[in-house]
Amino acid sequence: MPRLFTGLEIPSDLALELSMLRGGLSGARWIDSENYHITLRFIGDIDHATASDVASTLGHVRREPLTVTIDGLSFFGGDRPRAIVAKARPSAPLVQLQADHERLLRRIGIAPEPRKFTPHVTLARLRDASTHAVADYLGARGFLPRSFAVHRFVLFSSRDSTGGGPYVIEAAYPLLARADARASARAGGGEPYAATDEARASHG
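RESULT FIELD:
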């Protein structure tokens, strides 16, 4: 069964900058930069018929392009750190886009997401890293806020049901300005378009 999630891609220049933060923390398993992303909605392991329904219903999202800002480094896990992340600012357009995904996916029977939406890019997964070591790592790394424009979201799959990268883009959905969206609707557009072989290769 495919394991799916929706997300935003990270521009290559920002991914390169984030990748320069690798190293210097024992117990960290660093994520390859080509697998950086911001998860919008984790869907999980589903059958192929449901996956087809997911791909179709996401085509009903109607949102304009937005700007995402990565504004600092942090970690998840409290007293038992489990990940180093770059935090994304939860702007209203970003939160609204995620809420659209939640609403549409629930409508076709996908179970509600129990976790609060906390937009981020995972840089490393941690095992047996102490809070002291994590604090030292974060204290030694400076990162100025960086913004980038988002013109589409994508439906990702992992290679197999165990999850993790490399990720494959199964479908991509443009975010259109209002005038473009009206024109697309008149032309019968709005359905997701399949990723090109080149795009798939870059994520696989």
